[in-house]
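Field reference: sequence -> structure
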Amino acid sequence: MRIFDRALVRKHRDRAAPGFASHDFLVREVAERLADRLDDVTRRFPTALDLGCHTGEMADTLKGRGGIETLVQCDLSPAMAAHAAANGHPTLAADEEWLPFAPASFDLVISSLSLHWVNDLPGTLAQIRRVLKPDGLFLAAVLGAGTLTELRQSLMEAELAEEGGVSPRVSPFADVRDLGALLQRAGFALPVVDTDAIAVTYADPMRLLADLRGMGETNAVAEQRKGLTRRATLLHAISAYQGRFAGPDGRLPATFQVMTLTGWAPHPGQQKPLAPGAATHHLSDILGGGPIGGGWGDGGWGGDRLSADKS
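Structure field:
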């Protein structure tokens, strides 16, 4: 299966590496959220792998949290890896789809906003489980299906109007159900997937496009339409974005849906989930007898929203 052009993903990240610090707000925010999750775990993880390390933001955030003594950094982009190596941690350039590590090498594999560019995600998850020691932890954040919904809708409207058809300009993303099933398929124990929505606002939609380019997150879909976007299409998309989504203050929202994956390499001493029907209390009793409702909204179950403004 070839959804993404991995050579193009590498090219985009190589191009973004020198100026990444000017556009790394999302990666740093998500890295902090992952580190907070790690703080909630009582276990220590002496040897850890930062998979898809960008320019070292995860290492800057961790700084020994989780009992990490040795942190190995790895990125698809040689240019990103070279910048990350400046923090003094062992670093290499390698493809997430072909992990060059021996079985049972790490107590922890942590990944911040990188694995959504992988073609063979089931195979990659299986490799991650293989390089984890028994009872090792996998903790990752990927962009989900609700990401850049405003931009996606605006581009579709513009292409239909100006070019008579729609091409894949925003990457396809997995949803919560897909990722949960993939964790189980890869053999992880106690798999959990949850989702948050991070909302950023812009005064100018072109700044959003500049941030995406600066993060190395521009379109790398293998079947994308070749050539530059027509000027008329781009102007129509900007007009549609402003007309449909501008807030009372004129600022434009850009939503990033971030899904957090947690799973453990199997170990005989781990907790086992109860068999279906083995519960001794109803959930409604725990919640005080009120109705149980909700659904998979933009923020998912219980997803919070962080608002940030970009000029």
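Note: The first helix runs from residue 6 to 16.
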